[in-house]
Amino acid sequence: MTSAPAPSVEDTVFLKLVRVVNLTARPFQQRVGREHQLTLNEWRTMALLGSRPGLTATQLADLTGLDKMAVSRALAGLQRAKRLHRHEDPTDQRRSRLYLSSAGKAVHAQVVVQARQREAELFAGVAADELQQLDATLDKLIASVRRETAGLGSG
Predict the structure, then answer these.
(1) In this predicted model, what pLDDT tens digit does every residue of 22-72 receive, in sequence order?
(2) Where do the domains of the chain lie?
(3) Which of 13, 17, 52, 87 falls 20 to 30 Å from 131 in CA-CA distance?
(4) The whole model's pTM is what?
(5) What is the separation of C-alpha 152 from the centre of its chain, rounded to a whole number of angstroms?
(6) CATH 3.40.220.10 fits 12-122, yes or no
């Protein structure tokens, strides 16, 4: 029995995931980012705070997969644009809870509509059952990566 040849590097699932992110990020910046003076990482942060107000910076890093410095820069940009409020955490005064300001909520409401339209465009050629399978597979992949990185941090 002969085994199938290993895929070329550009055909690996990992690089395909990176390619999809890059191919979708570029149009976001050209369309939405410029219009709203918003970086992609600011949007990622804003999207989560729009649906889950009161998160901490550490929680945002975990949920976005961004490193703490990238989250910190995104939060600083949102704060400079007066789109973010920080409130002291009543249970731990070393931490801040993060909330969108009125201006942040207004931008979020506009951009989320554009983001949903873009998502519909991107997935127009993919069947609903395939999207459900992709969603489930991505959830498994995220859980696997989290387990792996948690194991690295404990050693």
Answers:
(1) 888 888 878 888 999 999 999 999 999 999 999 999 999 999 989 999 999
(2) 12-122, 125-155
(3) 52
(4) 0.81
(5) 22
(6) no
